[in-house]
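Same chain as my last thread, 171 residues:
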Amino acid sequence: MIKKEELVKIGQFAKPHGIKGEISLVTDYDLAGISCDDPYIVCDMDGIPVPFFIDSFRQKNNTTMLLRFDGIDSEEKAKAFTGKPAYIPADMAPLHDSDMSGWKYVTGYTVSDEKIGTIGPVTDIDDKTINILLTVDYNEKETLIPAALVTTVDPERKVIEVALPEGFWEI
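reply #2:
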């Protein structure tokens, strides 16, 4: 039996992707070590941790992975995961400093856009929803930048590269 205290939360399932059972997993966790060779991802179903074996997966962007589980082959079946947290067994999780898990460790990093250059430092992270937001001090004004726009995080230089869409500053 899987015990909840033996699990590490890696993200949260969002909505189904398409009609063939793919589900979006939003995560700020380093998924480089997660693969189809790993036996399963765990989801809490009615208070019980249940393993779901990975049939296929692909990276959608820096914070979203599209997964398909064995036996989940329709949009209806995939909807059962929407909004639920996703876990992996602690022994599958790469070893890392607890301060480096999640997005909180990037507080103080400098955000830079590929077109306009340096924007400012990250002063806070809003990770209360699946849409993680970086609070950035831009010209002494608090600006929210979606983590989905992050293209690179460089821990050595403490820099976060983003790709802001046209018109971002006009909103």
